[in-house]
Fold this protein.
Amino acid sequence: MTSENDAIHLSGGNTFYFLSLLQKRNAMGLLRSYVNKGGILIGVSAGSILTTPTIEIAGYGKDADEDHVGLMDKQALALVDFEFSPHWDGTDEALDSLRDYAHANSTTIYACKDGGGIVIDGEVVESYGDVRRIN
């Protein structure tokens, strides 16, 4: 990963497995360094969760990822100070569940419907599509 990359794309999939692979390959520090030097990181689904402080939210809710790898360290890249919930189905029930999670974990969550997203540039957070901030 060098500054010659226009951007790095973190794809979707099982978040627990994805994080375990990044940990095994010692890629966490490389990704943080890339972003801290001005690199653009694009996260989709599991990749978006990996940009947050923890992937705990990936195992939460009715459509949760299963931890088939027995991941012990769920600390993620911590490039932002909130958690992210992709694939929000647009229901109030899902928002209520995420509010419970946010309260229990003293965190802020951005919930995003498919087709939407957020862009973070320094301290500025811009949302596109149907995105809800829960804290």
Observations:
- The two ends are 34 Å apart (CA to CA).
